[in-house]
Design brief:
The complex is a heterodimer of chains A (287) and B (245). Chain A has helices spanning 2-30, 37-54, 59-87, 92-114, 139-161, 163-173, 175-180, 185-210, 217-232, 237-254, 263-277, and strands spanning 130-132, 135-137. Chain A has a domain at 17-215. Chain A is built from eleven helices and two strands; from the N terminus they run ααααββααααααα. The model of chain A has no long low-confidence stretch (mean pLDDT 90). In chain B, the strands form two sheets. In chain B, strands 6-7-8-3-9-10 form a six-stranded mixed sheet, with helices on both faces. Chain B is an alpha/beta fold. The model of chain B has no long low-confidence stretch (mean pLDDT 84). Chain B has helices at 40-47, 70-76, 93-101, 108-111, 119-132, 148-161, 178-193, 205-211, 229-233, 236-243, and strands at 2-11, 14-24, 29-33, 55-60, 63-64, 78-81, 166-170, 197-201, 214-219, 222-227. Chain B folds into two domains: 1-77 and 163-245, Rossmann fold, CATH 3.40.50.300; 86-162, no CATH class. Classes of the chains: A mainly alpha (287), B alpha/beta (245).
């Protein structure tokens, strides 16, 4: 039982971490809560469904096109919505309301174009799970865990070591100073949307392969990703990853003692506990 | 090198900069002085693009930069030290200086994997500069953990390392101890001897009049006098502005 819950927690944590890390990257650079990030996950899952299941493209080509689409979609959202609002000196509350509006709009568009019934991508046929330390895990779940870890490591390396990652951290730290030394904050905002959304796209692909697609799937994922980011320390990408895994484990070990229907309640209880006891999160600094 | 023509910036009813005009000649240290609220830092913010002028023109090396963005102004060659120390607090001293050292940070594909042939050369340059001010041990320290004086020095180094043709230095010795003040004065003197063009704001009159070639005095957003330091020292209008009637 323990090992099965551990594996389940690891899978949930890996997916939440992908959503939370992209969300946190955008938050730390642009300093506002982009709730529509959840809708980007959902839209890209449906785009994979369109490319692969409806248009019949080769699966790997469809995956690559979907990731490119996700990055482009993130860039477009920033360009046509947030950048324009920033130019008009919109406050963070306005940006937050716009992001919630966009989340609802995108979910409604999915509903309009693809319908309300659940969809299945169907690339991976139902396979017999492998036994690992007494727990059952499917090959797809192994792929989810490995690809999440590789991506999260690459993202960490990118932000810490690459020059462009440092420039992004510089804008996140102090926009005025960044601009004074010649770094364009708007360019960095665009790149954070492109990279964050491409990661959301990969999360969408992995979730889409593992579960059925439904128009509101993004809302649930962004709530979990957001909770993970708060627990780990909002604005910290490593914190978001840590918080997401903690959330994944808590949800799954929680149902050892409680009915599985309480899974979402566990996430919110942890969120409230952190907001009351340690609002800056695990890796966040007290201000 | 820098021409300010009829520059105006009002904040509501407050005329922070009011029809201000002056010129900074190449290879000189020009001091901008005046009592608190004279509009000196606002002029700096307008030239560096942090604020936008209501009217007037700012010409730098023949180019109109009145409406240019701060990063464009920086990339044209204007480097600036803030009045209140501003650094990337969550980055190390070395990262702070490296980010200033070239203006190609936003070239995504070139920098994606730090593919930058000059990086070793740049690191050496940073080490040399830190050695000069005796802060080589602090290379990997987060700047938020430095003392006020150390932060001031690192910001001054950043301003110098940022590729430039023109330096704007806002109160470099304000609030620092006498020893550090000497270090900063020596750095400015060295820059002057290298033929740098500098626009300086400083409240310390002795310090200013010793280093400056030309002095511009502002009061209530306007230029009330300008001339050589010895002329300004005895100018009755300037004395009145500073000491009151």
């Amino acid at each position: 039982m323990f090992s099965q819950l551990f594996i389940n927690g690891l899978i949930a944590g890996a997916i939440y971490a992908l959503v939370a890390s992209g969300f946190s990257l955008i938050y730390s650079t642009c300093k506002f809560i982009h709730f529509a990030h959840g809708a980007v996950v959902a839209v890209t899952a449906y785009i994979l469904y369109l490319f692969f299941s409806l248009l019949g493209l080769n699966f790997w080509l469809a995956v690559i096109l979907t990731i490119i689409f996700a990055g482009f979609f993130g860039w477009l959202i920033n360009k046509i919505l947030y950048k324009k609002l920033r130019k008009r000196k919109a406050s963070n509350v306005i940006l937050l309301i716009a992001s919630v509006g966009l989340l609802i709009l995108l979910e409604s568009l999915i509903l309009l174009f693809f319908g309300a019934d659940v969809k299945t991508i169907g690339f991976i046929k139902i396979a017999k799970g492998l036994e690992f330390l007494g727990a059952i895990i499917t090959p797809l779940q192994i792929v989810i865990i490995i690809s999440s870890f590789v991506l999260l490591f690459l993202l960490f390396f990118f932000t810490k070591k690459s020059k462009i990652g440092k420039a992004m951290r510089a804008v996140a730290d102090n926009r005025d100073v960044a601009e004074i030394v010649g770094i364009s904050a708007e360019k960095m905002f665009s790149w954070s949307f492109i990279i964050g959304s491409a990661i959301a796209g990969i999360a969408g692909i992995l979730v889409g392969l593992e579960q059925n697609l439904e128009p509101t799937m993004g809302t649930n994922l962004i709530i979990k990703g957001f909770t993970g980011a708060i627990i780990g320390g909002i604005g910290s990408v490593p914190g978001a990853i840590l918080g997401s895994f903690l959330l994944g484990f808590s949800e799954n070990f929680g149902i050892w003692f409680l009915p599985s229907g309480y899974k979402d309640a566990i996430a919110f209880i942890i969120l409230f506990v952190f907001l009351l006891a340690r609002p800056q999160g695990i890796l966040g600094r007290k201000k | 090198m820098l021409e300010i023509k009829n520059l105006k910036k009002y904040f509501g009813g407050v005329k922070a900069v009011d029809n201000c005009s002056f010129e900074v000649k190449p290879k000189t240290i020009t001091a901008l002085i005046g009592p608190n609220g004279a509009g000196k830092s606002t002029v700096f913010n307008l030239v560096s693009g942090i604020l936008k002028a209501d009217s007037g023109k700012i010409i730098f090396s023949g180019a109109d930069i009145t409406k240019a963005k701060p990063e464009k102004i920086s990339n044209l060659g204007i480097s600036r030290l803030f009045q209140q120390t501003k650094l990337f607090n969550n980055l190390t001293v070395k990262e702070n200086l490296l980010l200033a050292l070239d203006n190609e940070d936003t070239k995504f594909w070139k920098n994606l994997f730090s593919l930058n042939k000059l990086s070793k050369e740049k690191e050496t340059k940073i080490k040399e500069m830190l050695n000069l001010i005796g802060m080589e041990k602090f290379e990997s320290t987060l700047t938020r953990d430095l003392s006020y004086g150390q932060k001031r020095l690192i910001e001054l180094l950043r301003t110098i390392l940022n590729p430039h043709k023109f330096l704007m230095v806002d109160e470099p010795v304000a609030g620092v101890n006498p020893k550090l003040r000497e270090v900063i004065a020596k750095i400015l003197e060295k820059l002057k001897n290298q033929g740098e063009t500098i626009l300086l704001i400083e409240h310390d009159m002795n310090f200013t009049l010793n280093v400056a070639d030309w002095v511009i005095v502002m009061e209530k957003g306007k230029v009330i006098a300008q001339g050589k330091p010895e002329e300004i020292r005895n100018n009755p209008r300037v004395l009145e502005a500073y000491l009151g009637e």
